[in-house]
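cron nightly-structures :: item 1 of 1
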Amino acid sequence: MSAEVHDRGLQLAICEPYIYHELVVHLDAIPRPVTKVLDLGANAGVAGLYCAHKWGSEVVAVEPFDPARLVSNFTRNNLEGKLTLLQLAVWSHPGERLAMHRTGNDGMVGAVYEDVTQRTLCSYRPHTITPAQLATIAGPCDLVKIDIEGAEHVLDLGALYENAQFVILEQHTGGTNPTIDLERGLSSFTRVTEQLWARK
């Protein structure tokens, strides 16, 4: 189930329209064009679509679940040429397959990451890539948007920030035992909005 959003010349299908409107608040606060976006946990592709439409940005979208809605949203806005899609999950060990479970929002977000060796039954098992590997594949990106359902608290994402001028980080508080100090990892950045950080 999805809803249609028509805004700023964009047309997209998204599970919950509030997700679009909440993210646009942070995207609107970016003071200058970005040429390349890494959209980690892309879901329906809102961050990448916004930047590709507004600035002509190239987009590397990382989404472990079915990317059909994301691809459709780029196609219907004639921006498919701006999209590079990686259907992977970011995790600490490359090449593993994680047990992931969809929860909430009609199954579009709320993935729970688990070690696949601890569980025999799961809803989805994507291949994994480390943050450092992803940084190498994606190359330098002006904007890094991260929405990885709590994994941001247990992964060292520093390699992704190395060339970024802006970071949008959605922090999830439930279900994860934090081992990473997120703000320490963003020490070269200043908070602009609740989720947007700009390099000092």
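cron nightly-structures :: done
DSSP finds six helices and 13 strands in the chain.
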